[in-house]
Amino acid sequence: MRTSIATIAYVILCALAARSAPFPQSPSSQSTLLQSPASKPPDLTAAKLIFESHCALCHGIDGGGGRGPSLRRPKLARAANDEALKSLIEDGIPPEMPEAWFLSKEEIAGLAAYVRGLGNVLPETLPGDPARGRAIYERSGCSACHVLDGEGFGYGPELTDVGARRSSAGLRETLQNPAKTIPGNFLLLAITTGSGQTVRGIRLNEDTFSIQLRDQQGRFYSFRKSELRDVKKLRGESPMPAYGSALSSAELDDLINFLASQRGKP
User: Fold this and answer.
1) What is the CATH topology of the domain spanning 130-182+240-260?
2) Average pLDDT per block of 10 residues along the chain, 266 residues long
3) Angle at CA of residue 70, ends 65 and 71, nearest 5°
4) C-alpha dihedral over 45, 48, 53, 56, to 10 degrees?
5) Global pTM exceeds 0.85
6) Selecting from 3.40.1160.10, 1.10.760.10, 2.30.42.10, 3.40.50.300, what CATH number does the domain 40-118 have?
């Protein structure tokens, strides 16, 4: 009797152990479990379409820069690593770069990988001579509006690292037609005060009640809007002259070569 009871108990324990044991898995099902969504390679084809639809307007269709900086470089100033780049894409840089609230985490990761890939380019070989280009820069009076290595006036954008921010094609387009590549936050103003004085300069700040600007001589102005006779916002206008007709083709190559070599501190 005791033997029968022991046998029955043994059978029950074996059945319970078999029920709790995991079922054997086929190799294909095991690989499916191991391949989590995080380990999937980014869809670069989809990322390229996203970039062309939402990023190329400012950064250029090839990432070479335009209104926004060039992305065709191994190190990005505002994104030291991949996580920083994904956060930058997701949160944006108000007000210049909008946040990507409409993209999923997977799409943001793919777009970040695509942008990183844009930096894997060989150095561009340019025509022209940078030494001659520097001479053209100096004789053309560019330092009257631009700062380069701490020298000049800051009426226009700083050029110390312009070669890292702009492609040679972007530099050429700006030199030939400055109004086409005006940065998004740049606005030229023509203000008429209550006394009839006219002040022309670039906008530094503006709110509901006041506006601040700086003229080409570096003088700063702040006005209450209620005291002004007229405020003209000269959208699409640039104080920079077009050099396409002022310089020969060879001189333009020299100047572009010089500007492209300005890449800031390593």
Assistant:
1) Cytochrome Bc1 Complex; Chain D, domain 2 (1.10.760)
2) 49 47 45 49 92 89 81 83 92 89 92 89 86 97 93 89 86 92 86 96 95 93 97 93 93 96 82
3) 125
4) -170
5) no
6) 1.10.760.10
